[in-house]
Structure formats: C-alpha cells, structure tokens
Amino acid sequence: MDRLVIIEPKLLIFKCEIGEKACASFSLRNVMYTMPIAFAVQTSSPTKYIIKPPLGIISPLGTTNVEITAYPLTELPNSLPYCSDKFVVKSVVVPGGKDNEVVSPEWFTAKKKQVFSDHGLRLIFIGGGIVRKLVANGALDELREVLEIDGTLLDVQDEHGCTAMHVAVAMRRPEIVLLLLEFMANLEVKNELCQTALHEAAAHGELLIAELLLARGAATDARNPAGWTPLHSAVMGGHAEMVRLLARNDTDLDAISSVDGRTALHMAVDAGMHSCLEILLENGAHVDANDDEHRETPLHRAAAKGDKKAMEILLQFGANRLARDRKRKTPADIARAKGHPGFLLLDELRLGDDLGMGSRQGRMEAVQETLTRGASIDGADEHGWRSLHRAAFRGHTTVASMLLDEGADVKSKDVEGYTPLHCAIECGHKDMVMLLLQHGALVEDCTVNGQTTVDLATLYGYTDIAELLLNHRGVRQGAGKQVLQERVEKDSVLGTLDATFYVDLSSSKSSVYAKDGVPSPLNRKSVTFMA
Predict the structure, then answer these.
(1) For the chain, where do the domains classified as CATH 1.25.40.20 start and end?
(2) Which of 92, 199, 386, 529 could lock 195 by a disulfide, CB 3.0 to 4.6 Å apart?
(3) The domain at 5-126 falls in which architecture?
(4) Does residue 146 contact residue 127 with C-beta atoms inside 8 Å?
(5) pLDDT digits (tens, 9 = 90+) for 38-87
(6) Mapping DSSP to helix (H, G, I), strand (E, B) and coil, where does residue 180 land?
C-alpha cells in the first residue's frame, strides 16, 4: 500500500486580487475499508496561510474537506501564477480512532508509526491583476493556462480602468493581443480616460495591433471625453499610416470632437501633420469643414499658423480660399492680421487672386505690383487657370508679354488641358496667338478631349489663325487643313454670333446663350469666365 488518502483536486485554484484574501479547498478520502486514519496538512509558509482543519481523523472510506485561506497579497510576485510554497498531506492508521478525537502532531513522526506523505498538492493563483501582470511579462504559456481556467479575467479592470487588452497594446505585444482575441476579449471596454484598446493602438501607431482589433470588429467611432475617435488620436500622434488604415475601415473622417468641435483635418493642420493631412484628403475628408466654435476651415487654421505647406495641400484639394469664419474673415484676412509674410501665405491667397484679376483686366501696373510683392506667376486656381491663361483669353498682349518675360510657363495647362494658346485661339486673338508662338507655344498640344489648336481655330472659323498655325514651323496639314478649306469662304463663328446667340448681362456672372435659351456648346470659357 502506497497511500491512505486520495486528494481531490490536487490543483488548488486561488482567485485573488491585491489586498484581498483568497480561498481554495480540497477533499481527503480514506481508502481504508476498516481502519480510520489521521491526517495532517502542513505548509512550508505557515505565516501566509490558514488551514482548516490542519489535523483530523477520517472514518473508513470517509471523506473530509480542507480549506486553505491565503492572506492578502501586497504585491504580485514574478513566480505567479504558480506558487513556490510547499504543501504536504501526511496520514497514519489509527485503529479505534474516533472522529472527535484530538489528534497529536506527534502521531506523524516516523519514530512511532508508519507515516504516508503526499506532496502532490499544487497551488495556482489567478485574477485580473495576475492576468495583467502575465501580459506585461509576456508570459504566453502561463497566460493561456490562467485564461483556460477562467476566461472572464481578461476583462477585469485595474484601478485605472485598464484591462489586459489595454496592457497588451501599451506593451506593444501583438502576439498577446492575438491570444486575448482568441479568448474573446471585450474590445469596447474603456479605461479611466475613456480610451478603448483601438484608441491606444491608434495613439501609439501600432499598425499590426490595430489591424487585429479592426479585423475583430473594434469600433472606429468610440469616443473619449474630449470626443476624440481613434482617428483623432492617430492624427495627433502623427501616425500617417494609422490614419490611412482607419480611413479604409469605415471611419468617419469628418467626425467632430465634442470639446472644441475640430475635425481630424483641423487637428492635422494645428499639429503640422502634413502627411496625415494629405491622407485624409485623399480618402475623402471634407476640405472645407468648419469647426464648431469659430466656423473656421482647415485653410483658416493653416493661414493663422503661417503653414505654407498645409495651405498648398489644402488648395491642391480644392479648399475654398474665400471661405469666411464666424467673424466673416477669409483665410487671407487672418494671415494679414497675424502678420505672416506675403511670400508664405498671401501668394496662395490674396496675391494669387489679385494677380489673376489684374491679368484678366489687362492692368499692367497691378500685375507688376502683385509679382513684386511675391505672387507666384504660375499659381493656378481650382480650374487650373494661371495668369497667362487669363491674359491670353482676354487678348491683353502687353500683360502677356510681360508675364512671358518674367518666366510664365507658355505650355501650362488647365484641368481640361487648355494652354494659353488654346485660350487665345478660342477668342480669336491673332496677335496673342503670334506672341505665344514666338515664345514656344506648341501648336500640336491637345486638350483633354483631344482638340489641337488647329481643330479649335477651324471649329470657330478663325481661318486666318488656322492658316497661321498650319504654316507655323511646318505643322502637319491633315484634318485641320481640310476643315479649313471647307470653311475658308465663311465668316468666323463670332461673326454670326449676333444672329444665333446673345449674351446675358443681367447677372454678375454673364453667360453665352443660344436664342432658344440653351447654353452655347462652342465657347466653353465664355460661360464661366466672362466678366
């Protein structure tokens, strides 16, 4: 015989937290059919545990329960969840022993009787704090063992509201995040700052962790007390690729923070996060979104900061340079009030507008003044029109000549592929056509719709301009020459305009209309840009 009692279970599970007692129990069953046995439960650390009962007698085939209470832990040792404390169950046969008989510890000395010792008891400590400590230590195997005992522990929060998932994200351990996801961690638990795990991943730029969380359905619209979503956190951290990831996962790019009413675009401008700014705009963020407090657009904020790079990005994506805030101020007004140098800001705002207006109206002095003050000679508006396009369209050869001498790009194109040469031809300005050709304009340049300069001249019936173009530097005489010959006897389209079209000057933006009231399909520029 190798034992007198059977211990069940041999693994004692203590569920505890710092400062709290923990209890576990097991049973002892006497395997003797006719003899009572005495038992003693002893530990190597008697000051840490209370054992009830530590001694006793069990009748034949009888069972008794033993409870072990662990005193409150003041800290979590690194050995957890396992315990280095030892427990032994000793047993001896006591013929004629009674259940209520007092058991003497001396019975378990080998001098008098045969004593059986069982060292099989194991202790394991589990709890929310222990799970978080295992996460912090990166103890994957031990963590799995604890969670297999009680998977609910991974959502237990500490005094700061953090769960095991918050700790795993903070420790930047994607393999542990994956394990916690396997045990169905709640991804929407918020810490004392009301931050979810995705907030934390976004704030720290942890791409892989964020991908894992998003794949399991983490909410992208969760908000902290400031009204920040994970996207706001990513932008303020300057994590451009995180912004891209969130933008591609059904994130509201125009969500407004509840404290100051800013969108992620406003934050990107305020924090100088240009890469984040571009990614937001590329993915459809509203470029002219207003904040709640001042009704400022991101361009207002960029102008206030003097951030030329941010302004360039916003303007590239169509920001309204004439937008007004709650005080009716434009971005240019704010830039001027802040005292930012013209070459940083007003070139893209007020000076660009002044240069375009001067070129359109043929006011040489105004054009020269704006260029002297730092306006970009090739600065484009939202249609891609530059100062040379406007001068060419209006036939202001003196202004155009000066712009060309100052380095204006004669081959520049607007969004529809029109060069200044196309604009001059469209309005029949032969002198302007000659000037542009002398400065290297390309006759074969095509618009987005495939129209060459010769096509445009023949379409509008400018036979003299068409001949000039066809004869310029040996231009190929193909379809354009044929059309020209067919119309050589006809007047120009503008010559017949009086009979077929009329110009509506009743509004501030004049338009060309056919007699039946339908906008003219011919002169595309006149509808939009006629003064």
Answers:
(1) 128-219, 256-346, 350-490
(2) 199
(3) Sandwich (2.60)
(4) no
(5) 999 999 999 999 999 999 999 999 999 999 999 998 888 777 898 888 99
(6) helix
